[in-house]
Amino acid sequence: MSFDPSSISVPSDLLPADGRFCCGPSKVRHEQVDAIVAARDTLLGTSHRKPPVKNLVGAVRSKLSDLFALPDGWEIVLGNGGSTVFWDVATFGLVRERSQHAVFGEFSSKFAEACASAPHLGTPSVVKSDVGTHPSLHAEDGIDAYALTHNETSTGVAMQLTRPAGTSADSSLVLVDATSAAGGLTWSPSEVDVYYFAPQKCFAADGGLWLAACSPAAIERINEIGGSERWRPASLDLAIALDNSTKNQTYNTPAVATLVMLDAQLDWMLGNGGLDWAAGRSATSAATLYGWAEARDWASPFVANPDERSNVVGTIDLDDSIDANDVCAVLRQHGVLDTDAYRKLGRNQLRVGMFPAIEPSDIEALTATVDHVVAQMS
């Protein structure tokens, strides 16, 4: 007999005020939507080559530089297509010959696959670990780019960003996929050369755009490859993207509404204390979620090592006697959305977005709601 989620009722005063816990696209604040409405006569439907949109792009670039406390000489580069496209961009414009990759989940594997399939690059070196953990990279002869993932969205594993021992920006670059981490986890530019992301997670905008904070060493590599005979499509040419970005524009037409939402989120973050403040909200939510799971005999954090647990994506295993899909179905009936496990991971678990826009009090309400649901299912 199939489970009927409507058979369980949750009191309204127990539910989160906002039920959006998706791991991307993530909760959009009402103020961001208001910003789109405010831009309806001045930005939306206008040329991306003219001052209003170029000023918006310039503001986003400047505010990201402030948020990340980027040193002089760094540039924020942007283009269309999201992080998936940036992996292809990087194979053409950042990896000189061979790369090494930390692979510990679905998304960290994709850049390695992109480099492996690129006919102009050598076979990449891949360092794997079991899901729920992350590996460490090591210096290796012939490697000119080391690929890290700040936060593995599929598993809820986060890693501290450090340049692999024995390497330097003089000979190799550190490239970091920060799609679900940027704006919610702290990092040091001294350990990284390219910190790239899309804005639909911590920045609560729509997808379809990639942004990359690039160090002077990365810019030198971009220009080096850009001046070489390596063939690359114009839409994937990082040198073209860099040239356009310094002019506060993109090579082809961007989604202006996405930039408006991103700009509004940056104002919110910077106005409240910057990256430390935003990351602190996620850390508070994470402490609530993991502490709750550890206090239950039927739940546990999937990531065993507390130092590797993500503050922006929480994964919680449930006892086999409790079907996580049934729990999620009940939650969905009550407006609590997208707490399902990552589909390819295949675990009996909840996956909870804890990005800065998500109120820590709503994470606390979510745990109380799950307690109620599980008690009613027993």
Structural notes for this entry:
The protein contains ten helices and twelve strands. It is an alpha/beta fold. The chain folds into two domains: 15-28 and 274-377, Aspartate Aminotransferase, domain 1 (Alpha-Beta Complex), CATH 3.90.1150; 30-271, Aspartate Aminotransferase, domain 2 (3-Layer(aba) Sandwich), CATH 3.40.640. It has a seven-stranded mixed β-sheet with strand order 1-9-8-7-4-2-3, sandwiched between helices. Strand 5 (151-152) and strand 6 (157-158) form a beta hairpin. The longest helix has 20 residues, at 275-294. The radius of gyration is 21 Å and the shape is globular. The mean pLDDT is 97. GO terms for molecular function: alanine-glyoxylate transaminase activity; L-serine-pyruvate transaminase activity; O-phospho-L-serine:2-oxoglutarate aminotransferase activity. One of its GO terms (biological process) is L-serine biosynthetic process. InterPro entries: Aminotrans_V_dom, Pser_aminoTfrase, Pser_aminoTfrase_mycobac, PyrdxlP-dep_Trfase, PyrdxlP-dep_Trfase_major, PyrdxlP-dep_Trfase_small.
